[in-house]
Amino acid sequence: MSLLRETIKKIEQIDNTLAAETQERLDFLTKPQGSLGRLEELAKQVVEITRIKNPQLKHKVVFVMAADHGVTEEAVSAYPKEVTPQMVYNFLAGGAGINVLARHAGARVNISDLGVAVDLNPHVELHIHKVNYGTKNMAQEAAMTKQEAIQAIENGILTFEEEFKKGIDILATGDMGIGNTTASAAIIAVITGRQVEEITGRGTGIDDASWRKKVEIIQKAIQVNKPDPKDGIDILLKVGGFEIGGLAGLILAAAAKRLPVVIDGFISSAAALIAYRIEPKVKDYLIASHLSQEKGHRIALDYLGLKPILDLHLRLGEGTGAALAFSIVEAGVKVLNEMATFKSAGVSEKS
Amino acid sequence: MSLLRETIKKIEQIDNTLAAETQERLDFLTKPQGSLGRLEELAKQVVEITRIKNPQLKHKVVFVMAADHGVTEEAVSAYPKEVTPQMVYNFLAGGAGINVLARHAGARVNISDLGVAVDLNPHVELHIHKVNYGTKNMAQEAAMTKQEAIQAIENGILTFEEEFKKGIDILATGDMGIGNTTASAAIIAVITGRQVEEITGRGTGIDDASWRKKVEIIQKAIQVNKPDPKDGIDILLKVGGFEIGGLAGLILAAAAKRLPVVIDGFISSAAALIAYRIEPKVKDYLIASHLSQEKGHRIALDYLGLKPILDLHLRLGEGTGAALAFSIVEAGVKVLNEMATFKSAGVSEKS
User: Fold this and answer.
1) Do A30 and B95 count as a contact with CB atoms less than 8 A apart?
2) Which residues lie below 8 Å from residue A127, measured CB to CB, with a gap of 6+?
3) What is the value of ipTM here, to two decimals?
4) What is the pLDDT of residues A247-293, one digit of tens each?
5) Staple A321 to which of A247, A289, A308, B15, CB 3.0 to 4.6 Å?
């Protein structure tokens, strides 16, 4: 618990006083004021977060955290749970969606096992921070113990700290875990207070009957466990997952280091809600990369007050949407750093 | 006219038969089917356009065409027309928004003068294809002669062909011309048949009274000139601009070479509508980069049946939205080219 406590203690309010000053600098650049829309907003947010006037986003990292979910016993997913370790090997081999999109963005990928149900073969790029061999079936009992929930968050912090030694200017959250849209829907329903039907989507692609079943399982999990909507750790332990806890820890650790965190889709937003419940100040460190096709994602983002940058009908997870959004955030920062001013370029101003 | 005729003759229907085959290949990749949404659609479109199974988008070019507009006499813009040449020099010095965003996308910038009102200082990277020293005031008379309209389109084709020698895999359209949202609004209103009020926006940032004036000027220009809504060249010559004609030529030339054209915002969409009126087959070669803040842009895109990739509240022009979208289109193509299949990665398929 001490690592978590120390991390939380380091999280400060972002410096809102820098927004006006940065906007003024943006307004001197050779373009009509405000004409670069969200790029300007993103540049301002990165300055507020980092407190650096001309931030460089050279070191970009996507963290992909993997774990299994006991609730897959209830047949809530279209894919067998063996896919979790298989996909981890795919990440390590560089063949998954996130590998392609991270390479495209010039980002590193950090792959960690927070709780895959089997022992994974060692690999130099695989970070083992396993809390346990998958969660318990939340439809029957709590997904994990309180100690495990704290361990998951702290292992997320440790994963961050290891990678931070290599340099990080901006990071993204990514996930892998068959069954994790089920856990995420439960978390989002509990925290936002919305109906499970509104939040629950089709995950990797289930049919109507399976969707109905999934809704019932989530309702049952909430009923059996009665998570406290105000207590992030209580929600995590009762209806969460190890990778979700790890991502929450990652978000807290990044905020403590004044780094912008680009969150991916549905699962990442559930993790962001957990982190927000633990320490509300993290909210301003978050950049929502995209609006997922997963039903209920918008509800989670609205609750956090975040506007997604992209809407590309993605529903893959792994951090893929976040990797795509890196390019847009970086573009905003480059506008601030590299564009000429009206004066330096000898361009007449608005009459 | 012969260059235009020859170019049109070379434009073929894109090969729709490649869509199903490409989707099948996408469905073998290690992700739930369709889970990369628009990235998959973009990959398919690029294959259909290029007829290359694994297209490489290495050579990316943003064409920025500049020209002046006689209608600025009517005080329709927030900026003086001197800004057109000043911004061309800014492009050449590398300090404008498009320079920053093209560098970020790994794209070249081709800068051409289609009709700036002054003689520009020579520069090795400035391509002079001037049709005339700005258009006439369309509120009083036709913006240009028929011969000039054809010349503008053909100069756009020539601009493309010069740059094509250096290699182009994908291109973007960009514009610079004080007053060109006025001409573009007129074109879009004529072609779509919608009211001028619905189409006319604030351009670089005018107030309510100036907006009302701008609407009246556009209505007057249409009334005075009576462009034929079915005749792209007639519309261009009566209420268009030299850079808009040049961009229409660029689009036709690219389609003739089976290249995907990423169109920027409001002005580029007006040019795309002109090209579409000249040869409807070009439509399938177009990729809409973003939804501009300029009112009426959505109407133009809907008319062309195009869905914008981004919605970042941009209204700068220059090709900035298109340069940002390059990254997304390229991501789609890389997914197709680089992701592992379920079989090659040893990942179990959907049960």
Assistant:
1) yes
2) A110, A111, A112, A113, A159, A162
3) 0.97
4) 999 999 999 999 999 999 999 999 999 999 999 999 999 999 999 99
5) A289
Strand arrangement, sheet containing B261-263: B126-128, B108-115, B60-67, B170-176, B261-263, B286-288
Nearest to B162 by CA among B286, B262, B61, B241: B61
Task: Report the pLDDT averaged over residues B43-48.
Answer: 98
Whether A310 and B313 lie within 8 Å, measured CB to CB = no
Identify all chain B residues contacting A338, using CB atoms and an 8 Å cutoff. 95, 99-100, 103
Q: How far out from the chain centre does Cα B90 lie?
A: 21
Q: Judge: B101–A331 Cβ closer than 8 Å, yes or no.
A: yes
Give the Cβ contact number of residue A148 at 10 Å: 22
Burial of A305 from C-beta contacts in 10 A (0-12 / 13-18 / 19+): exposed
Hey, what amino acid is at B227? P
For residue B36, the distance in angstroms to the closest alpha carbon of chain A comes to 5
Q: CB count, 10 Å around CB of A246?
A: 33
Contact A32 B346 (CB under 8 A): no
- Measure in Å the smallest separation between the Cα of B85 and chain A Cα atoms: 9
Q: Give me the percent of chain B exceeding a pLDDT of 70.
A: 99
- DSSP three-state, residue B62: strand
* Residues of A annotated as catalytic (active site), given as ranges: 318
How distant is the Cα of A215 from the closest Cα of chain B, in angstroms?
20
Structure tokens at A86: 């298989």
> Nearest chain A Cα to B36, which residue?
A314
Q: Residues 6 or more apart from B185 whose CB is under 8 A from it? A: B196, B199, B200, B201, B214, B218, B266, B270, B296
User: Which amino acid is present at B82?
Assistant: E
Per-residue pLDDT tens over the stretch B190-240: 999 999 999 999 888 889 999 999 999 999 999 999 999 999 999 999 999
Element (H, E) at B112: strand B108-115
Residue A36: list chain B partners with CB under 8 A.
Answer: 97, 312, 314, 316, 320
How would you write B334-349 as a 3-class SS string? Answer: HHHHHCCEHHHHCCCC
Q: What is the 3-state secondary structure (H, E, C) of B280-334?
A: HHHHHHEEECECCCCCCHHHHHHHHCCCCCECCCCCCCCCHHHHHHHHHHHHHHH
Contact B340 A316 (CB under 8 A): no
Tell if the CB–CB gap between B311 and A311 is shorter than 8 Å. yes
User: Would you please indicate which residues of B are annotated as catalytic (active-site) residues?
Assistant: 318
Write the single-letter amino acid at A58. K
How far apart are the CA of A225 and the nearest CA of chain B, in angstroms?
30
| CB within 8 Å: B335 and A205 | no
| Closest chain B residue by Cα to residue A82 | B348
Distance CA(A97)–CA(B337), nearest Å, equals 11
Residues A216, A220, A222, CA angle at the centre, nearest 5°?
120
Mutate to test the interface with B, among A26, A29, A30, A40 (most CBs of B within 10 A): A30
What is the C-alpha to C-alpha distance for residues B83 and B180, in angstroms, rounded to an integer?
Answer: 12
| Beta carbons within 8 Å of B159's beta carbon, 6+ residues apart | B63, B65, B110, B112, B127, B129, B246, B249, B250
Strand order in the sheet with A126-128: A126-128, A108-115, A60-67, A170-176, A261-263, A286-288
